[in-house]
Amino acid sequence: MPDDKNLIEPIDADFDMVAKAMTPSAPKVLHTLAGSKDRPLKIGNAEIDCYVLDDETRVLSQRGMFKGLGVTRGGPRNANEPSQTGAEIPRFASQKWLEPFISKDLESALKSPVFFQPPAGHTGYGYPAEVLVDVCDAIIEADKQGATTERQAPIVANAMALMRGFAKTGIIALVDEVTGYQDMRAKEALADIFEKFLSEERQKWTKTFPIDFYKEIYRLRGWDFKPWSTKRPSVVAHWTDDFVYDRLAPQLTEELRKKNPVADTGRRKDKHHQWFNPENGHPRLREHISGVIALLRAAETWEGFKRSLNRAYPKFGDTIELPLTGGRSEIDD
Length: 333
Hints:
It contains 12 helices and 9 strands. By secondary structure, the chain is of the alpha+beta class.
């Protein structure tokens, strides 16, 4: 009697369904502003279709990349079998004058194009944006070593022009700029920060700002400190935003003001720190406050403290310094 462990259970699906399940799907384009004929990536006289995929890979189309180099026969040897493009290096890079200057990493990248679904049309393939930099570098090195002839002179000139148009560390920024993805990425990054730090609902009040935070500020300003009083000059509230919230994350202060607006009374109903979630936000806030207090204690002068603060906790953006008005209000704690 056969061992049940060796039996294969039948699959309740037709052949097409099984084939589809076994075939990896191409990643879809995350952002479709670029890649169109109206908005290619322009570097010098070259125009190259570019995309940002859903895994955040920045891709240059293979055809556009080789066209930018002035190469007319750059793709796979068998153009009728695009599914085999990962099996061999593109025809252009395998030429005798260039092949010795193709590194192992670049060879591997050229043998493994990225398949993706453009906004319209058939499945396309290309390369991560950095590959163009490495190909240009190989072309220029081949020319330096005397491996090129007059026939390759236009390709060398194009490679040098492209290299002048971007640095390897800047190609990602160029693609993000032309696709408009940088704005989307910035918004998503801020949303992630706010989600990590802030709560959807106001938390129960707990003492967050130690008395030393205010005591040291008063010392450096030369003011008489009264620990039993919660009335403080209104500028201290501004400094609290400046020293703490402005330096924790970009636009965090603005987000807190939205969550905790000024009421008709002219005061905020809650304290800003009550909107930090207890899992991540509040511990990170208290850690930052402790660091600021340490800098306050170590400082001999107000200006010395501010220099140390800017060095230890740089601000996200610029904030206008408010004048000391002498007014009094309850502040954040």
